[in-house]
Amino acid sequence: MVFPEDLKYTDTHEWIKVDGASATVGITAFAAGELGDVVFVDIPEMKAVALGDNFGSIEAVKTVSDLVAPVAGTITEVNPDLEGTPEIVNTDPYGKGWMIRMTIANPADVDALMDAAQYKALIGK
Question: Which of 70, 120, 125 lies closest to 99 in space, CA to CA?
Fold first, then answer.
């Protein structure tokens, strides 16, 4: 299982890639594997979110899970490919399977997130 070193991770299994004051967010390969076959991703609207807010949900064959904002900010883009091909979350969670792009309201939020080694320890890998 791959955990890119250039990402930060949450204990709710989201990843974030920071690029200046903006970021791309998705779920980890571990989370995608635990969910199983993803059949639907629902991210209702582009909006401001607080750290820890639910910004949508992801549905697999047997379960539905909330998507949790890893930082406070404003959602600026939702991955349009998720509507027609939600299974890309399973096949490419760190690439084409990204969920949202957002601006970061508080850069200190990023500092509180886990690096790859800390995330691997969390999930026992």
Answer: 70
Structure tokens at 41: 């991703």
Q: CA-CA distance, 33 to 14, in Å (whole number)? A: 13
Tens of pLDDT, residues 30-84: 999 999 999 999 998 879 999 999 999 999 998 999 999 999 999 999 999 999 9
Tell me, rounded to whole angstroms, the distance of Cα 15 from its chain centroid. 5
What pTM did the predictor assign?
A: 0.94
The continuous run of DSSP H or E covering 7 comes out as none
Q: Cα(62)–Cα(39) distance, rounded to whole angstroms? A: 10
CB 28, CB 92: distance < 8 Å: no
- In this structure, what token pair is assigned to residue 58? 């992801």
- Residue 122, classed as helix, strand or coil, is helix
The second-level CATH assignment, the architecture, of 19-123 is Beta Barrel (2.40)
What number of helices (H) and strands (E) belong to the chain?
Answer: 5, 9
Residues facing 41 on adjacent strands:
58
